Amino acid sequence: MSMITIIGRGHSGTRAISHTLYASGVFMGHTLNRSGDKVPAAAMYDAARVFSRHVSWKSGLEWDFDRVTGDSPMDAEYQRLVGEYMKDVDDDPASLKGWKLPETTLSLPWITRLYPEAYYVYLVRDPRDSILAAHNTDDLARFDVPYPETEDVLERRAISWKYQYDLVAATPKPSHWITLRFEDFILHQERELKRLEEFLNIPLGRIIVRPEAVGRWRCSAEKVPDFDFLQTALQESGYDQD
After folding, report:
1. Taking all residues of the chain, what is their mean pLDDT, rounded to a whole number?
2. Neighbour count for residue 145 (Cβ, 10 Å)
3. Residue 242 forms part of a structural domain
4. Sequence-separated (6 or more) residues with CB below 8 Å from residue 240
C-alpha cells in the first residue's frame, strides 16, 4: 500500500498533480474541491496553527525551525488534528491513496514524521507567478506565523512563499521525495510524467495542461516587484535567468 502526498505553496501547481493522480486511480479522499484539495480542511488548518507555536521568529524574514525539525516530541493536539483530517484516507483499503492540500506544507516536518514511508511530490513554481493570485496562506498570521507586517499584498504573498520555501528546505527529507517544477510539468509534460511514473512505480494518466500558465508575471497588469529576499530561491530553483 502506497501513500502519496503533494507538497507546495498554494498556486504552485499542486492542482495539476492532484488531478493527475485522481485520473490515475489514486484515492485522494472522499471529497475533493475544484482545486483537487481534500476537504473539509479545518482540522489540518488547526494542526498548522499548533505546529506554528513551536517555530520561533528570529527577526525580519528569518525563522528558527530547530524545534520542529529535530527529534523533540510532537504536540499531541497536532497529532489528533491530523488524524481527524486524514481519517478517510488512513482508513481506506485502497492500495494507492494520498491527499493534496497546500496547507499541509505549513507543518511538513511533522507530516514526514507521521508518514515516513509516504511518497512526497514537491511542486515548485516561479514565485513571481505563484503570488499573482490570492491564496488562503497569503497572510501567515492566519496560521499563527509571525512576520513583519506590511500593507503591500504582493509583498505579503512573497513573504508567505519564502517562509514555506525555507520550511521545506529545513525539513529532513524522507526516503521517497521528488521535486517537480511546475513550468517543466506544463512545458515538458511527458518527460516529467515519466520521471513521476518511475518515482511512484505506477502508470499515470494524462491531463490537459495550458502553456499560457507559465510566465504570466511578464505580462501581468500588476507589476511584480523584484523582491530581494526571493533572489536566493530564484537562483536555487533555476528562475534567475529572467
Report:
1. 96
2. 23
3. no
4. 231, 234
Given a contact cutoff of 8 angstroms between Cβ atoms, the answer to whether 127 and 163 are in contact is no
User: Closest Cα partner for 182 from 47, 5, 8, 38?
Assistant: 8
CATH number at residue 81: 3.40.50.300
Give Cβ neighbours of residue 67 (< 8 Å, ≥ 6 apart). 54, 55, 56
Q: Residue 160: which H helix or E strand, with range?
A: helix 153-170
- The answer to whether residue 241 sits within a structural domain is no
**The three cell numbers locating residue 174:** 524522507
Cα 232 to chain centroid distance, Å, stands at 19
DSSP track, 14-80: HHHHHHHHHHTT-B--S-B-TT--BS--HHHHHHHHHHHTTPEEEETTEEE-HHHHSSSPPPHHHHH
Mean pLDDT of 117-144: 97
Q: Which domain holds residue 56?
A: 2-236
Please tell me the pTM assigned to this model.
0.96
Task: Say which amino acid occupies 227.
Answer: F
Strand bridging mode 119-124 / 177-181: parallel
Total tally of structural domains belonging to the chain: 1
pLDDT single digits (tens) 89-105: 999 999 999 999 999 99
pLDDT digits (tens, 9 = 90+) for 131-180: 999 999 999 999 999 999 999 999 999 999 999 999 999 999 999 999 99
